[in-house]
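Sample 1 of the test manifest.
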Amino acid sequence: MFIGNIKLIAPALYLCAAALVVLILGVIAARKPGKGLDYQLPTQYLAPALMFPGVVYALWAVLESLIEVCYTVDVLIGYELVRVPAVALFVTRGGHAQLTADPFGALFTLVAFAGTFIVMLVSLDYFDAAQPHKAEYYSLVMFATAAASLAACASDLIAIYLSIELLSLASYVLACFVKTDRRSGEAGLKYFLYGAACSAVGLYGMSILFGVTGGHTSLSAIARGLTTPAAYSGAAWVGIVFTLVGFGFKLALVPFQFWAPDVYQGAPTPITAFLSVVSKAAGLAVLVRFLTAAVFLFPPQNFSWYWILVVLTAGSMFFGNLVAIPQRNIKRMLAYSSIAQIGYLMIGVVSAVHAFPSLERLVPRLWNLPNVIVRTRAASWYYEPWDMVGLVVYIVAYMFMNLGAFAVVAGIGTRTRSDAIDDYAGLMQRSPFLAAALTVFLISLAGVPPTAGFVGKFLIFGGAIQHAGQNHPELAVLAVLGIINSIISAYYYLNVVRLMFFAPAEDRPSLRASLALNAVVAICLVGTLGLIAAAGPVVDFASLVVSGFLD
Amino acid sequence: MLAKDFLAVGVFIIVGIVFVAVTLIASYLFRPYNPSGEKLRTYECGEIPLGPAWLQFRVGYYVYALIFLIFDVEAAFIFPWAAALLGFSRTKTLAVLGIIDMVIFVGVLALGLVYAWKKGVLEWK
């Protein structure tokens, strides 16, 4: 086995070590609350303080992988000389990497890390200093983030399953973290039961793929196995669809969305934010890698798993947006909204599949690799298709706007003890800053310019139309459906804005935001409003990241 | 290839069934049969059974069981590791790497024990 440049996944390793430090120091501190270690080094400050270098480190890893991805290395594995990309980690016999720390994975790592840092600041405001089990809370969040980072780089079924499962197990516990709240317990139990069932189905699908492709777990080996006639059986199709069930659950894609509303409503709000951004980013990265690396050629005649995804994409957008309209609870509304948002992101995934359309691309061209399947993206020498650029930009935009919205909801929820949309009436008078910020986040979620959400949607829908051409009218249809859904979603987003600005406040006291809350909201505001100002460089950078995408 | 792999599993299944069947039948044929009240009573580690078994156990037992399980699994990992390390020892890098891996693994588990200890679950109050 060849280990490779371990520095590229060092952010995840750093985070695991930091989580252990937080756990042990936090437990020692918790023995005497308010005194000694708990006074000098409170866990709720230690965790973000250790998280911040992780974010910087993850940013460095993106830049490093942009350089490394241009190189290959020759390694001796067993008695065989194999040429592999320099970003391949843990390469086994035959040149199959278990992790691929390409710029795409590194960027999703950065999104997960930055998102978690924001979630930690929200937690600082949401829980008071006397929160029980602080050590467990913060270390679980950090372990889950490390798992999300590994999932973004995983290019082997075992690595995918282990990282997704570590992320899920930590999430189940976090969802029911407020033990005194019945709804939180309900959320944790529902999430666990549904999650375990879907994870089992996904694992079964992986085992079928393992079997029909001749006993391979690596995505590149599965891609090759699926091109042999032996794989053109119903079993391989069942394997792919079952595996997609497992990923669909993490993404809360219709029809695997049934857990999302209850879990999002019941879980503590910072954890809801975590689930809606970090957990979904990991699931999305895994899905993109699985589709484009392993099954994009299968089966060339009828592409049936692709049509399932197209239908689910449209279904997610319509279901999420239509069911969000009658909601009375803002967390529940944002849960349905995030189901719709994943639909928009899925348009990017579905059109990204077309960037790898034919068998010739399997021929190692760019790298002249004898053993590894490396694809060159379609036509990337004269223009970069927008599909995955849109995906990358939209996930960054989604992180800022959705975390911002949940930060405001968490802040208002702790102060008014209510998440009902009706209680947002007259928020403008009670807290002008929070009301204005929530307005920006909501119109960004709706995709109104000049916000980050608009840039992301513009690129994703544009990418779909680019690929539509004459052969793929369904992509143009999806883009049009996406635009129709954006209009539907504006109704319920703007309804909250209407209540905040135009409904009477019934002279309730004004709300006082803490420093942490103001800081988080300000960070997210800068991201949401600043992305369009920097749209040119951001798109160029995203193109650079995407052009280094490997399987 | 696949059929040969499953042949071993098949042999294990058959041997397992035959072994249990032979032992039970042999003991049925050879044992004396003198039941008494003492002998027919539910066995509970030498204690006289009291009350129904479907009651709530103290949660401390579960924590103990979990900690035991962790170290049980650790042992299960260490044996094949030790066997494989012998093969690795021909290459110095692999041997060092193998030892570092196990040190990290045991270290993380030891931290888990420190956590349990500091959490106070090892004290029976």
